[in-house]
Amino acid sequence: MADQRMDADTPVFAIAVAAELSGMHPQTLRQYDRIGLVVPGRTSGGSRRYSTRNIEQLREVAQLSSEGMSLPAIARLLDLEDENRMLRRRVVELDAALRAERESRPGVRVFAAGASGVIPMPNGRRMRRSAEVVLWHPGGGRD
Asked: Is 38 among the domain residues?
C-alpha cells in the first residue's frame, strides 16, 4: 500500500465532527459550503469531509463574524490567506531550485549576454569582447 501522509488539507472529519470541533451547527457548515465560504472535500459517495485547515477556517469565520465582519469580506480574507499560503509554498520551492542550481554550478559567478541569451560564465573564463558583453558580477569587482 502506498505511503499516505496526512497534512492540514487531508479531508478526514465528517460534518457532525467538524460542527462539534468548530462550535457550529451542521446546517451552518452546509450553508458555508453552498456559498463557497468553507468548501470541504467529498467522498466518492458525495459526503462532506473536513480537514483540520477547514476546521481552522470555520473557527476563524465564527470569530470574524462575531466581530461584525460580513460573509463576503470573510470569504475574501480566506481567499487571500489561501493565496498567501500557496505563494509561500512556491517561494520555498523556488528557493530550493535556486539552491540546487547554485550547488550544481559552484564556479559560476559572472553572467554574460550573447546571441543565445544570458549565459553563466565560470570564474576565470573571459569572453571575447567583440562577441559578448558582461552584464553582472556579484560584488561589482574581482574576487
From this structure: yes
Closest CA to 71 of 118, 38, 30: 38
pLDDT in tens, 98-123: 888 878 876 656 666 666 777 666 66
Rg (CA), the chain: 26
Residues 71 and 110 both lie in one domain: no
Residue 91 domain flag = no
**Do residues 112 and 127 touch, judged by C-beta distance below 8 A?**
yes
What pTM does this model have?
Answer: 0.63
Q: How far apart are CA 78 and CA 120, in angstroms?
A: 42
* Continuous segment of H or E residues that includes residue 113: strand 108-114
d(CA 128, CA 50): 62
Domain limits for position 36: 15-75
